[in-house]
Amino acid sequence: MRIQIVSLYVDDQDRALAFYTGNLGFQKKFDFPGEYRWLTVVSPEAPEGPELQLAPASASPAAKTYKEALYQQGQAAMMFYVQDVQAEYDRLQKAGVKFTMAPTKTTGSTIAILDDTCGNLIQLTHLSW
């Protein structure tokens, strides 16, 4: 058994695709249009690895409520591992990405939190253990 697809509910799939590919550097994997558009992105470091589904929050009232509650309490909806949080923070800030938390050392890791412009907070993490 393995993890292949993880869903992230977004306010706008087109804006999410632009942000995740243009700002964060992911690659579009699948984009099947229709009433229930199937849209996934992958890391360019692992194009055959796990996919992040950018799912429309409007399709699921429960998901929309959950997503909004996480955002309001400042909790990240997703975590991405990076080699160097400070370097990614600097790169992404130059690209116009808004952060709600600058790089911060915590027990066993360094983290930063960004706003994905689509209703989610995303945590960048580097584990030091």
Describe this structure in words.
- The protein is α/β, with parallel strands linked by helices and 129 residues long.
- It has one domain (5-127): 2,3-Dihydroxybiphenyl 1,2-Dioxygenase, domain 1 (Roll), CATH 3.10.180.10.
- The protein contains 3 helices and 8 strands.
- Strand 6 (99-106) and strand 7 (109-115) form a beta hairpin.
- It starts with a strand and ends with a strand.
- The mean pLDDT is 96.
The general outline is: globular
Low-confidence stretches: none
- Class by helix and strand content? alpha/beta
Strand order of the largest sheet: 1-4-3-2
Q: What percent strand?
A: 35-45%
CA distance, first residue to last residue: 26 Å
Quick check: average pLDDT? 96
Full CATH superfamily name: 2,3-Dihydroxybiphenyl 1,2-Dioxygenase, domain 1
Give the count of structural domains: 1
**Rg for CA atoms:** 15 Å
Can you give the helix content as a percent range? Answer: 25-40%
CATH hierarchy: architecture: Roll
Fold-level CATH name: 2,3-Dihydroxybiphenyl 1,2-Dioxygenase, domain 1
Which labels suit this protein?
single chain; 129 residues; alpha/beta; 2,3-Dihydroxybiphenyl 1,2-Dioxygenase, domain 1; 4-stranded mixed sheet; 8 strands; 26% helix; globular
Question: What's the quick description here?
Answer:
The chain has 129 residues and is α/β, with parallel strands linked by helices. It has helices at 13-23, 61-72, 85-94, and strands spanning 5-10, 27-32, 38-42, 51-56, 78-81, 99-106, 109-115, 121-127.
Layout: helices, strands, pairs:
Blueprint: E1 5-10, H1 13-23, E2 27-32, E3 38-42, E4 51-56, H2 61-72, E5 78-81, H3 85-94, E6 99-106, E7 109-115, E8 121-127
Parallel strand pairs: 1-4, 5-8
Antiparallel strand pairs: 2-3, 3-4, 6-7, 7-8
